[in-house]
Amino acid sequence: MKKSTYLLLAMAMQAVFSPPALAQDGRTALVPLPSLDDFTRGEDGWAFGLGLGVEYETAYEGSDEFGVEVDPAGAIQWRQGDNIFYWAGEALGWRGLRSDTWLFEATVAFEEGREEADSDDGRLDGLGDTEEGTELVLQARRAFDADWRYWLDGRLITGDNGNLGLFGAGRRFGNQNDGSGSELGVVAVFHDSERANRDFGINARQSAASGLSETDVGSGFRSIGLNYTYRNTINENWQIFGEVLYEYFGSDIQDSPIARSNFEAEAGVGFIYLF
């Protein structure tokens, strides 16, 4: 998708989601969740954060190979009251707070495909590369009270390569309102057959080329996962963050020859400088 299209989308979302701002009661972050970065310091206008993150993670979904990856971190954000528009790497989106306990988010993002070379042990040889694509992510979070101590989450990810549905719950630790502290979430993931076979299916051509058994994966339950997020504001300009993710696959996924492990895991740490 061209950058001009992203800019037009941002302007359209701004026009639709710009009601009068709700009182924030001195809250610095839009919502005080460490998993949702907010670089605005509670002020309307532009905010910039730039940094690096280091992740130790599985080479691809279902892999038993691990590696280290260094990626840029941060975002360009623009806040107007209870709305934040952002550009973070290959994602452009909006999130907005409603009635102090509802958070909505819409994001257009680029999704990278899987490559045969992702497996150093050659376990993807003959399967070819999966296609890259564009995704639309729609999310709603509902807090039990205005301090966002406990919350429920629902997400729909739809795009060129199928659909995912995620349903979760979380708890925030710490009393800060600036988005620092830590957070623990649990999520159940479901997929349609198109997405399932994109990631774990093997068609006749791939089977002949790879020697792996032909596999068709149906829609339904994909995985159950735990996610821990940490964010600490060191001073006015520096943040440090960390994340640990564990995802346990359902039996249909484990039966696929692509899944060399019954889980996926990653751990990361990084820093961001706020301008």
From TrEMBL:
Keywords: Cell outer membrane, Membrane, Signal. It comes from marine sediment metagenome. The keyword Membrane applies. PANTHER family: MLTA-INTERACTING PROTEIN-RELATED. The keyword Cell wall biogenesis/degradation does not apply. It is found in: Cell outer membrane. GO terms for cellular component: cell outer membrane. This is MltA-interacting MipA family protein. It holds the Pfam family MipA.
